[in-house]
């Protein structure tokens, strides 16, 4: 491996200053890194079984988790380079496929290219698969990067080369750095890298990564800030490109469809088949498009545009629930770049009966999105439905652990509260807003209200949510000094923009959610009691997944079929042992963790069947531990003759467990009861899983 000469400190500091200015509020903690300790931890990790789940000393949890994925994914820890495609046709295909991303990144890369010369650093752009499609920077570093295939055509996702700035940023979806010995493969441990994902402004999907790499001496905490700022600039350029294309497609539609009536429903899709404009979209079979506050369904994928662009092929490409529309191809510069879907209007019926029927339909659809049959969950859904149908309840508190699906309940309230199709649903995560910006985000500001204020002023989220529902997630993160102003808005139903004495009336239903115990926060003085009692007059507790019993299996089946349908594959088949392990697992990440697991299994499964060994170690190990019989002889579980019905039933369950070696499916079949009933009986009689 070649070693680079030390980077120019003046230029490195200039990059750090540029990053700090570009990101504004992004602050990184001081990095505590010990090279020798990290190497010892890596060597110790490799000497253990790959399924080891203990955290090695001196290694960040983010890095350890990535090492674990790398080891269990079969990555060679002694690898010295990434896979590289040098086929000219394949490179040309990558360039064409990522033309929009490359175009959006061109300005940022051009402005940074000169700054990087002499710093020992290089800036690379990768697509959603982690394949490099562009690289700029210090010439010597670019040359040395080819020693490890850090160049165009190199594949740097975790499945290819283990822990690294590009692949791990793709996996986590967050800006990260991987420094020196933190890399999984030995051949790249002399490098440092910081990567940030780039998301499509239209649908939020990760479409690439921007990464700053070089030999380890170039490491600065600000490297992550630099790539995060660059990613945001690229996303801004993408948004501008998409807005321009949206305008041109609308113009193309207007010129090609003179018979279009304003009352007709209209959806414009781009060249990827995603809705970029929606107006008067009808109900019925297109209801799944109706979930946006400004334009229902914008960003949704609806169809695959055929290469030919003929009317017949376009009609055949439409999904079944959109076949009632009229479709028109839209061409720009002679190429098919989108299509217009027109839904002829129908006479409107103005009656309260129709309004209530539509509200009930929206409510039923939103309730159907909450998958589960457990008593605690259904009770929470019932309370949310009652709140949605009540005009007297203006605020609601939703409590529950992270990942339980609190936003679905907020959307349920919105669905049942609708008075018109365009009633907004505005969501804000209080944990993602800096302390200084809370007032501006909540209440808005006028021009020049403070340094950095918008030139034209800006409405707050209360104004944006007027007539609809405002969802404040992580309400416990709201700064104490802002809480009185929020209480005032809720009480007086008016909002004052910062710097403006004028009161603006707002009609907003507030849905606050938190994973904290707000009663304890009130007792600790971190949350105002008057605000707590104002927003918590009606509260809902969304139960964690571990308390929902067989809902785990229902959710697995739900996500399994949905993911398979999107991918055009058959659903996965789970063995009884795998299902038992999934039921036994406590799901600390709740529904979000379960969904991520199903997505991962669809990606990594070698066949259509999921066995116990296909599950992550922390889940499979629970099943192995719980299936151990606490006796060398099953008959040792048999007790003395019983004298009551309950004792007999308890003994029958124990005998069946012993006879079937703890297989719950076979135990339920032997006893002639359902698996949910068996689980209830196990809890009722206090039969520990250790019997299994």
UniProtKB/TrEMBL annotation:
For this protein, the record's SUPFAM superfamilies field holds: GAF domain-like (SSF55781), Homeodomain-like (SSF46689), P-loop containing nucleoside triphosphate hydrolases (SSF52540)
* A Pfam family assignment: GAF
Q: Which residues form the Sigma-54 factor interaction domain?
A: 370-603
Q: InterPro entries recorded for this chain?
A: AAA+_ATPase, AAA_lid_NorR, GAF, GAF-like_dom_sf, Homeodomain-like_sf, HTH_Fis, P-loop_NTPase, Sigma_54_int
Taxonomic superkingdom: Bacteria
- Keywords for the protein's UniProt record, in alphabetical order: ATP-binding, DNA-binding, Nucleotide-binding, Transcription, Transcription regulation, Two-component regulatory system
Q: What is this protein called?
A: Sigma-54-dependent Fis family transcriptional regulator
